[in-house]
């Protein structure tokens, strides 16, 4: 393979909120960030609309936030992690505020908070209505640019990990812009912060490059993966033919927007006592059922928001305008789309993985906070808490110079890119058979087709990273013979108390399970 480089810098794979915040918390220790796009572009964090969940008001408490987190997680949340994250939430909001994040504030200086699904009170801190992710990212990028210890290599992506005796020693990096031979960068500490897996599905709200590669490359290196079967499908992606699909934030429903079908009938009132603010998995399945029945579900913001949607939710208004939709006068067509992966690389309470010298934070991680169904707006919060946690643990447990020269990488043009047709086939398989509603027959077919794609196109590491994550999701979904949270089996529609536990497995175990189950009759 390509050349190798040794650095004393901590290597951070990714450039979203978790990566940026970790880099800030590692300063002045030298850091090398690997960003496929220009900094701030292509990260799921920048697309987050709702905000950050945190108990900031007198009407709320970290304990109540933790209870809501555990309840939404449908029996598999690690209660100690929920307590840790919710207790730390206020400190991170204050920290972001001090860095310059323009959170929406009340006349008396408090934080404007929205209520989102499965929260018992309003506790989602917002920025300019639906601009939380973009504004927080902008603030963090400005702070990172001001720190000389952080080096960012843009237009590069990680494609594999080098290991020796259960220890990660380096990361293979390729050009994100053209086919190149990978370059090996060896480092004393590597932090995986490269996002989730939503883009593995044909219908998704995630940026184009977020297709499970970070989870897959860690799994291929031998890292344990936890809860891969639990994928959250956002109920209200705007169904207007864009890939990825724009998001109609849950905060709209928090403000009183309702879901109706083509006949004008509300359908959530009969599904759950909280109606439109029911947990996301319930709303997603109801919308999926309406879609399957040809009832064209839509979000009606007209009565609750009227013209204020244009000012208070500019990202939604902009997306609607692109699709020729006037949300002041028209309803917004919606569909359930892959949005957030509760599963990921298994992490302990310090962000450590099962491989030495490898940490993980953000959506690529599975910390136990989200369980089977992430509580709305806990994703950005978890990324913040564990980014700092990982940074502190890396500082405490690894040796590193206080100064290190910048890493110079030049990519040649001798390499391969994932086959675009193969990637689309994989995404179609995942949406068709591993989506909102799952069955043994569908999951078995998915595993068979993923294996076939690997056999045909498996010479490319980036593609193998995608198929590895897809295999983990589908195999764990097939093994979990119940319905729980974001995982719904039509053939096992009820929760089984005996399966109220987290899943932890390796890629080798998932492949063995795939081989066994795909040989069995469906």
Layout of helices and strands:
Layout (H helix, E strand, L loop, with lengths): L3 E3 L3 E4 L3 H10 L4 E5 L8 H4 L4 E2 L8 H11 L6 H21 L13 E2 L9 E2 L6 H14 L4 E5 L1 E9 L2 E9 L7 E4 L3 E3 L20 H8 L4 E2 L4 E8 L12 H4 L3 E3 L19 H13 L5 E3 L1 H4 L2 H5 L1 H9 L9 E10 L2 E3 L11 E3 L4 E2 L11 H20 L22 H14 L6 H18 L3 H19 L24 E2 L1 H13 L3
Parallel strand pairs: 1-10, 2-3, 2-11, 3-7, 11-18, 17-19
Antiparallel strand pairs: 4-6, 5-6, 8-9, 9-10, 12-17, 12-20, 13-16, 14-15, 15-16
Summarize the structure.
Helices cover 36% and strands 16% of the residues.
Textual characterization of the structure:
This protein has 522 residues and is an alpha/beta fold. 36% of the residues lie in helices and 16% in strands. The chain has 16 helices and 20 strands. It has helices at 17-26, 44-47, 62-72, 79-99, 132-145, 213-220, 251-254, 280-292, 302-305, 308-312, 314-322, 378-397, 420-433, 440-457, 461-479, 507-519; strands at 4-6, 10-13, 31-35, 52-53, 113-114, 124-125, 150-154, 156-164, 167-175, 183-186, 190-192, 225-226, 231-238, 258-260, 298-300, 332-341, 344-346, 358-360, 365-366, 504-505. The strands form 5 sheets. Strands 7-3-2-11-18 form a 5-stranded parallel beta sheet, covered by helices on one side. Strands 1-10-9-8 form a 4-stranded mixed beta sheet. The protein has a 4-stranded mixed beta sheet with strand order 19-17-12-20. Helix 1 runs parallel beside helix 12. The model has no long low-confidence stretch (mean pLDDT 94).
């Amino acid at each position: 393979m390509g050349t190798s480089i040794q650095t004393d810098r901590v290597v951070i794979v990714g450039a979203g909120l978790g990566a940026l915040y970790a880099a800030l918390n590692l300063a002045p220790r030298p850091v090398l960030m690997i960003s496929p796009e220009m900094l701030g572009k292509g990260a799921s964090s920048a697309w987050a609309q709702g905000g950050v969940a945190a108990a900031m008001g007198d009407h709320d408490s970290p304990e109540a936030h933790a209870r809501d987190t555990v309840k939404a997680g449908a029996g598999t949340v690690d209660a100690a992690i929920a307590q840790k994250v919710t207790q730390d939430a206020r400190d991170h909001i204050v920290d972001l505020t001090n860095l310059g994040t323009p959170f929406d504030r009340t006349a008396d200086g408090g934080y404007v908070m929205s209520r989102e699904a499965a929260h018992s009170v309003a506790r989602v801190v917002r920025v300019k209505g639906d601009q939380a992710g973009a504004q927080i990212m902008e603030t963090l990028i400005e702070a990172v640019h001001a720190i000389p210890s952080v080096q960012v290599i843009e237009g590069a992506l990680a494609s594999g990990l080098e290991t020796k005796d259960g220890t990660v020693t380096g990361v293979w990096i390729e050009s994100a812009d053209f086919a190149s031979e990978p370059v090996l960068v060896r480092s004393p500490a590597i932090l995986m912060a490269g996002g989730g897996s939503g883009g593995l599905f044909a219908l998704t709200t995630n940026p184009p490059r977020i297709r499970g590669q970070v989870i897959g490359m860690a799994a291929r290196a031998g890292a344990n993966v936890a809860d891969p079967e639990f994928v959250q499908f956002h109920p209200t992606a705007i169904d207007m033919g864009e890939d990825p699909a724009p998001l109609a934030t849950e905060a709209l429903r928090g403000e009183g927007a309702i879901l109706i079908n083509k006949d004008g009938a509300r359908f959530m009132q009969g599904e759950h006592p909280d109606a439109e603010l029911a947990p996301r998995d319930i709303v997603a399945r109801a919308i999926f059922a309406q879609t399957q029945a040809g009832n064209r579900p839509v979000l009606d913001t007209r009565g609750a928001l009227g013209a204020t949607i244009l000012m208070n939710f500019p990202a939604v208004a902009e997306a609607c305008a692109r699709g020729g939709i006037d949300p002041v006068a028209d309803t917004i067509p919606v569909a359930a789309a892959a949005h957030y992966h509760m599963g990921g690389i298994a992490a302990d309470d310090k962000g450590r993985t099962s491989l030495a010298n490898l940490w993980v934070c953000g959506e690529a991680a599975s910390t136990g906070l989200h369980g089977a169904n992430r509580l709305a707006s806990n994703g950005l919060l978890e990324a913040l808490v564990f980014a700092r946690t990982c940074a502190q643990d890396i500082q405490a447990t690894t040796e590193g110079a206080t100064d290190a020269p910048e890493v110079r990488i030049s990519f040649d043009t001798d390499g391969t890119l994932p086959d675009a047709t193969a990637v689309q086939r994989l995404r179609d398989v995942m949406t068709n058979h591993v989506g909102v509603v799952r069955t043994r027959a569908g999951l078995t077919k998915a595993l068979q087709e993923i294996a076939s794609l690997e056999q045909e196109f498996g010479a490319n590491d980036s593609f193998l990273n995608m198929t590895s994550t897809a295999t983990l999701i589908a195999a764990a979904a097939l093994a979990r013979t119940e319905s729980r949270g974001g995982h719904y089996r039509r053939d096992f529609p009820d929760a089984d108390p005996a399966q109220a536990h987290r899943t932890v497995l390796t890629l080798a175990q998932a492949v063995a399970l795939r081989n066994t189950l795909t040989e069995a009759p469906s």
